[in-house]
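[step 3/7] fold_predict: job queued, chain A
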Amino acid sequence: LFGIGINFIKKYFLFLLAVSAVSGVFGLVLAVKLPPSFEATQTLFVKRQASLDSKQFYTYDGYYSAQAAERFADSVFGALKSREVLRYAITRVAAGMENDPHLDKEVRSIKVTRLSPQLISFSYGNKSRDLAEKLITDLSGSVSGIAAELNKGGDESISISFVSPRPLTAIL
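[step 4/7] structure written:
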């Protein structure tokens, strides 16, 4: 079997070399000519402020604070995975896209990832750096509003904060 492979390479060496060279040149031309894509990413942290420690009694509030924050993070994560929330954020950024047939494709291109029990990351890639950043910034604002709405009448010690004030944008 090995000898057959060697014979094939010897017989078609020049052809294989030419195909490799043409493929390399084609790939280089594509890489230079295609516009870059950008991905904007934002990460949020859900926290619950524990009440003051008691000097007289041992409290479990730190543990229960973390548990409450994790459960609330489940709700925020679910909201971010909701197509309806993502559609709303996209249509706010790109006016007139409400009836666009490509809207569902754009919604599917938003990636939401649970990094830890209280840390959630979401990102969006686009050819336009400004559009990617604006969408993630707007989605961040929407998430803040949704979190406040979900927590209305609930635990006032729960809050969300963003790891950075602006989304991180990378060239893909």
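[step 5/7] annotate
The mean pLDDT is 86.
Residues 129-150 form the longest helix (22 residues).
exit 0
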